[in-house]
Design brief:
There is one protein chain. With 231 residues, the protein is mainly alpha-helical. It has 12 helices and 2 strands, in the order αβαβαααααααααα. The protein has a domain of 158 residues. Helices cover 58% and strands 3% of the residues. Strands 1-2 form a two-stranded antiparallel ribbon. α9 packs antiparallel against α11. The protein is globular and about 85 Å long. It starts with a helix and ends in a 5-residue tail after the last helix.
């Protein structure tokens, strides 16, 4: 008995409760579901059947734009970078290439498709197909030439660079009485879009091969503009 009494530990001074723990800080924070019969399950030890993970509630509370990973400020900044492609303006234009997104270019291409409708809904599918397939061809050509770019970057840059075509297309109805001026404005719009996209996609490895990449991009935007009046 003396041996066991030597290991006797006074536990009276120890006190505490698990209720003092922060439930949100625990690994598995659970909350009760407000369903009928919950008290019955808890009475017989089956309360875990009416509990759910609290993290699901936090995910449900996220805004829709955050769930879809849409940043309007980032998209607006990239729009300004494309519309103002000159380096002396101070925009960090490399963000359009280095931080590609999907929703911004998609919105730009859809706006161009809507501007190009003229009563033909089929033009929308043509323009979307041209954007996806054209970006793929530019990506393959850039990789063959030795450029370190990926498809998502080409998709974003080509999509955002349709913006100059939208700006040009909205002014063309005012220039219909002047065919030569209208043709000149179309050409300037295509050159504007080509310069904006080419200056972003012609990375350091492609500086000596810029014409080989700019020419197909120029043809791509010429084809974009050919769809302006419908297919």
């Amino acid at each position: 008995m003396a041996i066991f009494s030597s290991f006797n530990i006074d536990l009276k001074g120890l006190s505490g409760s698990l209720d003092s723990l922060d439930p949100k800080g625990s690994v598995k924070y659970r909350r009760k579901k407000n369903i009928p019969g919950a008290a019955f399950f808890e009475q017989y030890g089956f309360g875990w059947l009416v509990e759910e993970d609290g993290s699901d509630k936090e995910e449900e509370d996220k805004p829709l734009l955050e769930e879809l990973e849409i940043d309007p400020r980032d998209i607006l900044y990239k729009v300004r970078c494309v519309l103002c492609p000159f380096p002396f303006l101070g925009y960090q234009r490399q963000l359009v290439r280095d931080s590609p997104d999907f929703w911004g270019p998609l919105f730009v291409v859809i706006v161009f498709a809507l501007v190009s409708l003229y009563g033909q809904a089929t033009v929308v599918s043509w323009i979307m197909t041209l954007w996806v397939c054209g970006s793929l061809l530019v990506f393959l050509l850039a990789r063959v030439l030795g450029g370190e770019v990926n498809y998502s970057q080409c998709l974003g840059v080509i999509g955002y660079s349709v913006l100059p075509l939208i700006m040009t297309a909205t002014t063309l109805p005012l220039l219909n009485p002047f065919p030569f001026i209208s043709l000149f404005v179309k050409l300037m719009g295509v050159v504007w879009a080509t310069y904006s996209a080419g200056s972003l996609l012609c990375v350091q490895e492609l500086q000596n091969k810029r014409p080989l990449l700019l020419y197909p991009i120029f043809l791509l935007y010429v084809y974009f503009f050919s769809l302006y009046s419908g297919v």
